[in-house]
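Holo model, adenosine-5'-triphosphate. Inputs:
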Amino acid sequence: MRGITKIYRETGLHANEDVSLSVEEREIHAIIGENGAGKTTLMKVLYGLEPPDDGNIFLRGKEVIIPNPLAANKLGIGMVHQHFTLIPSFTVAENIVLGIEPRTKGVFFDRESAVKEVGRVIEEHNFHINPRTRVSSLTVGQMQQVEIIKMLYRDVDLLILDEPTSVLTEQEIVKLFENLQRLVKAGKTCVLITHKLDEVMQISHRVTVMRKGRVEAVRYTRDVDCRELSRLMVGKSVLFDFEKKEQDTGKTVVELRDVTLLKKGQERPLLDHLSLELHAGEIVGVAGVGGNGLGELEDVITGLRHIQSGAVYHDQKDITNIGPIAMRENGLAYVPADRLFRGSSVQSTIRENMIVTNPRRFLRAGVFDQKKIQVFAEDLAKQFSIDGNPDIPMGMLSGGNIQKVILARELANKTDFIVFSEPTWGLDVAGSEFIYKKILEIRDAGSAVMLISSNLDEILGLADRLVVLYRGKMVANLRNRGVSKETIGEYMLGLKDDFPKKKADAS
Ligand SMILES: Nc1ncnc2c1ncn2[C@@H]1O[C@H](COP(=O)(O)OP(=O)(O)OP(=O)(O)O)[C@@H](O)[C@H]1O
Ligand SMILES: [Mg+2]
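Output:
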């Protein structure tokens, strides 16, 4: 790509400015840069999703025009987006062939050929997934594999992955990287957008650093280290150290008492007799390997899922199974991991997203007071340094800005307990630090904070108390003082358990 410039009309923003990028055959080329640096935009241009305002694209030395993704596919270019595009009620095979389905006599969808052809691609590239499985029953890691297979089915040889690891567990990341390395060995080329410098070091051959819509540097990975990359990304090395005030914790704000969550047709509970208190002015960090109950705890404590036994209290009032809306009325604020679907409405504007959790306060005589909404939105945007016109759809914002909008909105309501799930997924260093500061502010102001995160540095850096879940059970509940990452790891892997069940009730 040579001299690519892309200006978004709606905002007049120069998302890419005179960007040149060259990717060699059979390399893994990482693209890094802060939120909003223009990484996704550049790849959308390459994939035919956004027309460039200037610049040219060359493929093996020949200039090409890429008007749409179909044309990109035909040229051998495939992209897997940050947010998946699969249809949950369709099977793996149906999703993969979508748009280029095999047909019997050119008319009817030929399901059996689809399954067979997809099966062949899966086998050829050594994936392990059944083409007949419904996508809704897959894990996030498997869905991503389906997206990759979908591109391989279209016979692409350049695969673009936009922040593929931000939604994966540690084990899924290992698996993904094995898959990528295998694909590159088999002759494919890969562009990998990521925020995680250790991933760049681990898997890429070269790395392009973007900053504010421009290319800051291109390096062979073997010639750089994390420090230098981070300096190139943000302009200075940012150290992760939190200034955390010592403070005594207050009264119990929320209590889970003996909470059990069951799944139909499954013997082992998703949450197993979980008892836990959240105190005012305290951050409780919850750690665990994916699939051990973290997501379920998030659902229960935010009222999204009903428990089968046990109870939840807020200020000593029983609020068991009252549902998400009533939970909010009881002082809950919630910053979900799933920002785009759970956290916001992609089509609605920033302004609408800001008022959605408490629209009533903007009503005057039954109609929305637009002036009041505008003042409110502008004020929040300023406080949280959100870039973007409040009238553009939320879906157009970069990941970091979306997270800021959600946080701003959640904190604007009166709350005394707040649940964060993976608050810095997909955020860059500066964006993460902003969120960390806010989390500490909320704690210092006396709210109870639950921080559910797969990032152990984050948990160890922020939490006052550490809770570890393993197979839906609490195996640790410790004061965060001198606890090492290794120790947490042992709890997470089930090697250590501070609350072993008595033989009698351990069936
Ligand atoms: N469709 C759009 N319309 C208007 N502005 C957009 C659109 N998409 C992105 N932008 C803006 O362009 C800039 C570059 O965004 P882009 O998504 O390319 O950044 P990024 O480097 O991928 O960031 P992140 O790491 O947060 O995903 C941002 O300021 C973003 O808000
Ligand atoms: Mg992006």
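The first strand starts at residue 2 and ends at 8. The first helix runs from residue 39 to 46.
Archived with the compound record.
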